[in-house]
Model the fold of this input.
Amino acid sequence: MKKLFYENNGSRTLFTNHKCELGTLLTIIVSCLITAVLQGSRFFYSAHYTKVLVLACLFLFYTGLFAWLKISKRLTENTGIYMMIFLGVLLRCGYVLLSGLYERQHDAGAYTGMGTSFVNPGHIGYIEYIYKFHKLPDINPYELFAYYHPPLHHILSFLWLKVNILFGASEELAFENLQILPLLYSCLCMFTTWQTLKLLEIKRTGLLIGLAFMVFHPASVIMAGSVNNDMLTILFMCLIIYGSLKWILNKNLKHLIFLAFTIGLGMITKLNSAVLAIPLALIFLIHFISVIRTKKKGMILTWVKNYCIFALIVIPIGLSWILRNLIRFGEKPGVPVPGETSPMYTADFSLWQRLGIPSLADLHFDFPFHPISAKACANTWAIMFHTSLFTEEYPADLPDVLLVLCQITFILSLLLGIATVILLVCVLLDKRTNFQIRIFLLTGYFIMLVSFAAFVIIYPYTCSSDFRYVAITLVYISIALGLGNRYYLQLPPGSSGFFPAKAAPVFMHMVNCGILAVLILIQVIYVFWGRW
Done:
């Protein structure tokens, strides 16, 4: 892996970095726009196997280009990263082109078009309401399913619908193209993860493995075709993590304002974005205490002013939806639930059965898919692993060979799930990691898991345990993989947390091989599953 890339030095490297970043962003935007155009072309209405054949030829061309770059020794680190992200973009665009508006969605609902006066439930119905009436719903948002969500994603989707209609798209095509915005958000998550790893000075193998985990993880690919607000929420959370690390390393008002907007906008996309404000508040407190200890009145007043500016931005934006519903409808934040008669209802099971270590029966090694029914599986962590790989699907007619691959991949992912949590703790306890970064990432990760467990208790249904609610943990694991490679394989031996110095490299090599194996196997599974 170390010999895969050839790096430039000096000012040329800086120029190449900026050029690569700009090229990557332009590639993402252009690819998403091309996908939108293809959705309205004959390609979208052609036979499934025709689409697969065309996309397969495109991937073969990509493979040939990559091989040429490698053989001609033009594959610098930046070029390699660009090619990896570009492959991730192709995967996501291919998935959107091969999946329809109503396939593998969560709480999507439906639309009936401008020609009717119907008000439809679900995220599509919510978007259609704004599209029809050019205003936020006047009804109590808790009386129609999915309308309780903050509206930013739905407003952006409405504006995107208008752009499609303006350029001559039919209503059917415009609504089909609702997938394009989450596609863009998913691609931008790859870019933001790359920037986050660079910020932590992760290079070479660590950068490749860490970024590959985000680029090729099936959850981040499948959510690119969703029409709900999950993908935009994850993008804002990625930006909050990136912005927080940037602020920790460069404490100034500019980065504080960036954080205020990302947290505020994240909260009016989905309220659980606010979870990351908790570890950030802890860092603010540590910093402000250090400022007070300087006893410099000028500095203290400057940071009081800066934090007031932060609050004046984030509070009105972030709490606007909550205050609107409280004032107009007397409704506090919450989630409408299906009721105790739902087969997904888990409150009849003990807390240990729901949140304790899953039993072998819960894990369903024989058929590792989410069965939906609480009687089949009520354990949160088992469901989380099932849905992280295979979403909420239960393919009863899966071929035997493919089922075996699914079983192997699931077992590997369980082992790696445990290993990467250990790795994350170790690299964040390592003294080579900035103290405030340690605090922010470690508390953020575990607060995320605790809030997930609390959500499952408050809303006791199997759907509450879906991995999409904690998909931001992919970024934390990417960071763990990057720092693990940097500390244990690329730098001289040092503090390695819980690991003996000699054991750390062996463990890291095993994790790297396991991650690559899972990512390769899961791509093979999806290619032959017929999901694309």
Summary: The mean pLDDT is 90.
